[in-house]
Amino acid sequence: MLESYVNLCDLLQPRDGDVVSVIGAGGKHTLMYRLSDELVAAGRQVVLTSTTNLHRNVQRTDVATVVADECDDWPGALAAMIGQDSRAVLVASNLGTNMHRGFEPQTVEKIRDAVPRAVVVVKADGARKRLLKAPGEDEPVYPPGGNLCVLVLSLDAIGKPLDPAHVHRIERVRALTDGEQISAQTLIDVIGGHFGYARRFPSPSRRILYLSCCNSPEAERHAREIFAETEDLFDRQICGDTIDGRYHA
Question: What CATH number belongs to 4-248?
Answer without folding.
Answer: 3.40.50
